[in-house]
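Minutes, project check-in
Item: structure for the 340-residue chain
Input as provided by the requester:
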Amino acid sequence: MLRGDSWAPLSPQEALQLLDPRFWASVGIDGADSSGNPLDTSEQDSIDPIRLNSMLAREYAVRCLVKMPDQDLNLYMLQLSQLMKLETDLTSSPLAAFLMYRALRNPTLIGQSLYWHIRSELYNTEVFPHMAAFLRQYLDACGSAAKSELQHQEKLMGHLRNVIKHIKGERQRRKEAGEDYSVHVLKEVLHEDLAHLEFPEEGIRMPVNPNLKCKSVKVEKGKVMGSHQVPLWLVFNNMDPTAEPIEVIFKDGDDVRQDALVLQLFNIMQVRAQLRAVASPPLSLTLPRCCRQEVWEDDGIDIPLRPGTTGAYGCVSVGFEVGVVCVPPSSEPFGLLLQS
């Protein structure tokens, strides 16, 4: 709205009036009077809403994020990466500088998450130049270990995309030839391709969760699921010998960002529930009731979003309509439940 875009429901002047008074108090004489109240922009020709947006509003927004711990910051990476689409001038972008700093400070969590969130937007030719430049700057500065880790992940994701392409091609060939192209037959194709997967000695972190590190794939456990886009159910051996195998669903042809948005809400609900449990005096939450855990409990629904539980499963987009979804323990596909 501050930029005056045609789709905005308010004019720049109206949008400025809605900014929190704390914003005006923080920006000083350029945007507020001596009482901290916003200036009347209809009478102050010297204030350019576009300049204010780039020089003041964004800086204030970033300052509000500075004290956020990495775990909380990562919760909102989906939105922050979308905002990066507007940061075309990386040299003067407070958000780009902030995200770069936090990614370099914690490459395992923030760096990896930021990389894949931005990487999945590079199909968009309008934002490709500055988004790709941002990733290049990060890869040049993150160090050899973090860069090598992302390269291993890219190689694994690329190989899995080729596997799905091969399976779709084989399905089409068998269909045209009048041969059996059921998922049981296609599973044999999957197993043949998975047998050629190679893993470095140090293992590969899963893009969907940097805490999950795999050392090999359990070829015989791989399955081709029965939908049109033939997603793959994969089981990896965990680098931690005491941990359970890592189960994920790899999709090529579905936009998992929609799934990620819904799961983000559940994760935020879980975090709020944890804060409320440890706060003394009890924490007053700002989320509406429909977005709080109590709405489930009041209706007698036992959903694992309490402190000490794993909460919502992971989901991340790694390319255009390509993504990885964690399989919750002891779960079954919804389609299989319907069949039973």
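Outcome recorded: The chain has three domains: 12-143, 146-252, 257-320.
No further action items on this chain.
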